[in-house]
Each structure stands twice: as structure tokens, then as C-alpha cells.
Amino acid sequence: METTETTTAFRGLESRASGRVHETADPTAVPADEQARGLDPAYDYDAVDPEALLRAPGDGPAGVGFGHWRFDALLPFPAATAVSAGEGATPLVPTDRLADELDVDAVYVKDEGRNPTGTVLDRGLSVALTAVAARAADGQDVEPLACASPGNAGQSMAAYAGRADLRSYAFVPSRCAFSNKAMTNVHGGDMRVVGGRFPDAAAAVDEQLETDYTDLGEFATPYRHDGVKTLAFELVADLGAAPDAVVVPTGSGEVVAGIYKGFSELVRVGAIDAVPKIVAAQAAGCAPIAAAVERGLDEPEPWSTPDTICGELEIADPAGGAAAIEAVTESGGTAVAVEDDDILASAVAVAQNEVMEMGVTGGAAPAGAWALAEDGFFDGDETVVLVNSDAGLKTPDVLRSHLMGQGI
């Protein structure tokens, strides 16, 4: 019998295919065919007080003012049960120079590099590991945990699995950043380095793990994108209103889908009037979501020849592609593809001018915003948020090589 403690508003797991809500927090209790087509945590929005949801940190019950778990009124599990290292509550940094260059009213960088393992994905892995730890406490055999990852998710999974005293395997491509490989092991996680690119790492999970495992890949668990949505909650809480546009570096579509869900839920509970424009920024060398948006498709077609220095963005067949397309189109946003040189130059420019270490992945956000400004996307009176999705110390060698290529 399931004894996992859930929040008052949590209704269960909703099938994306049928719309049926299964009254459980355990995805393995849902029929296999519905699991395979995707599940999403569902909530009773009438049970959520918007003012209480967005209260200032420390104003709520003990334990709720800690990181993004302060928003547990719209998370599946209460803060008191969370597997957490204080993820969330990341700085929202005003950047007047960028506002002038984009010719808009205000620009902020949401610096997700300040999360425990330096990535926005910590938000989702915290919620996903909370769910798995609860199943383990119920007596289920959940080990090993596994996911294929360009790098960041594998490192984050290892860190949170260590907190939960669970064994994990990260499958990463050989071109994964050294920092991810090193820290995955430092956090106590097992790692398999697979020759080739991300699809090869994904294929290796079933090929090399000769046992049942708990898959913590994006959208394989219903909780990773649901944790990411707290970024949207923090933006509204910090700004006092929704921004006009949010530019998100995009690979798998997980972060775009999560942020869109967060804003949509704030509309449902009456905290904001409308979802801001969501912009998916991709590397031109691997831009299946941007290409699909340009062509008016509901789902992206796999990118045949992925080639970008931005490893976290090199996802040729994104699991969250359809969800990301829905997010940008339903919000009135768009998707944009930018060249690697522009991404690297943007990350360096932010680092040199804004006292902030922006990772290669994060550089796609300012690069995308500059490209949109040149195309006349902004009216001029907007508040724009750029998501720095990971820390500069994830890929310092790539940023330094870019400077060396310029003779610096």
C-alpha cells in the first residue's frame, strides 16, 4: 500500500494521452502504456491560495522557506519530506546594459548557476529524488537509478541520490564536459562514458544495465519538469508580477515546458493574468524545436546531423519537443536558433560586464535575445528575463578557447 505523503492540492498523475488522472504519486502504479506516453502531476488549483503560494521566504511554516520548496503548495510533496540541498531561490540580477542594448525597459538574468550543482536541473532532480526516496521508504526496490545525460543531469542525479543514500548510474557521451564527469564520481555516482553523442548514451542505458532500474531521464519521470516550474514562481514572487518575456536555452525541452507549466498554474490560481512570452533559444547546429516552430509543426523532426559545441543543447530528438513547441506557441513566444560563436561571445560578454559567470549553455539566452531584437521581436517596453541555465565553471575550457581563437 502506498504511504507516500503528498500535498493537499496534489491529485495524482495525469496521462498526457488520455487526460485520466491516476490517484497515485508512484508512476510505476500507472499502466505501462500510459507511463510510456507521458505523465504530468495534476493539482486541485482551487485548493491553492495564491498569496500564500508566493509569500516571502520564511513567512510560512517551518521548513517551507527553504529554497524552491517554499512553493510546496503546488508541488507533489511537502517541504518537510524533501530531498533538498537548498536549490532554487537563485538571484535575479538586473542588467541595465543589456536592457539598453536590447532597447527594452528592463532585462534580468535568472542565475541558475547558483544551484547546488550549478544547473537549473537541480530543481527537478530534487523533486524526482523525493518521489523515489518515498517509494524506497515504502519498501520498493528502486535501485539503481539511471539516466542518460549530456552531463548536467547525471551530475545532479548523483548528488541528490547521494543525499537519499541510493545508487545511481549516469550515462554520458564521451564529449561530456570533464567537470560533469569528475563531479558525478565525486558525488558518489557511477558513470558510464559512451562513445559518440547523446543518442548513443541514451541507447546504452538498456544495453549496459542488465537489471531493472528507475529511469530519471527527462519526461521518463513526471517530476523533473514539474520541479523546474518553480523558476516561474520565483520570477513572479521577485518581480511582483510576471515578466513580459522569458528566454530559455533549450535542448530537451524540459526547462521550457517546466517554466510554461509554472506560469500556466499561476494563471489558474489567479496570481497572474497571463503567461508571458516563452522563447526557446537553441544552437543553430542542433535546432529541431526552432525548425519545427518556424515550419508550424506540432512536433519536431529529429535533427539528422547535430553539431554544436554546446553539449547540453545538442539533443537531436528532444523528449520534450512537443511540450516545448506548445509552450512557445501557446504563450505567444517563439523559438530562435543562434550560431555557436554568438552563444560563446554572449556568455563571455555577460561575464565581462555583469559580474556573473554564465555557462556555455546559458549563453544561448542573451544570444537569442539579441537575435530577436534585431528582428524586431520586442516592442521596447518589456521586462525580459534571460535564464542562465548553468554555471560558467561547467565549461570554462570552452569559453577560454573562444577567447584564444580571438587572440586573447
TrEMBL record:
<feature type="region of interest" description="Disordered">
    <location>
        <begin position="1"/>
        <end position="38"/>
    </location>
</feature>
<keyword id="KW-0663">Pyridoxal phosphate</keyword>
<feature type="domain" description="Tryptophan synthase beta chain-like PALP">
    <location>
        <begin position="84"/>
        <end position="390"/>
    </location>
</feature>
<protein>
    <submittedName>
        <fullName>Pyridoxal-5'-phosphate-dependent protein subunit beta</fullName>
    </submittedName>
</protein>
<dbReference type="GO" id="GO:0003941">
    <property type="term" value="F:L-serine ammonia-lyase activity"/>
</dbReference>
<dbReference type="GO" id="GO:0006567">
    <property type="term" value="P:L-threonine catabolic process"/>
</dbReference>
<dbReference type="GO" id="GO:0004794">
    <property type="term" value="F:threonine deaminase activity"/>
</dbReference>
<keyword id="KW-0456">Lyase</keyword>
<dbReference type="InterPro" id="IPR050147">
    <property type="entry name" value="Ser/Thr_Dehydratase"/>
</dbReference>
<dbReference type="GO" id="GO:0006565">
    <property type="term" value="P:L-serine catabolic process"/>
</dbReference>
<dbReference type="Pfam" id="PF00291">
    <property type="entry name" value="PALP"/>
</dbReference>
<dbReference type="InterPro" id="IPR001926">
    <property type="entry name" value="TrpB-like_PALP"/>
</dbReference>
<dbReference type="InterPro" id="IPR036052">
    <property type="entry name" value="TrpB-like_PALP_sf"/>
</dbReference>
<dbReference type="GO" id="GO:0009097">
    <property type="term" value="P:isoleucine biosynthetic process"/>
</dbReference>
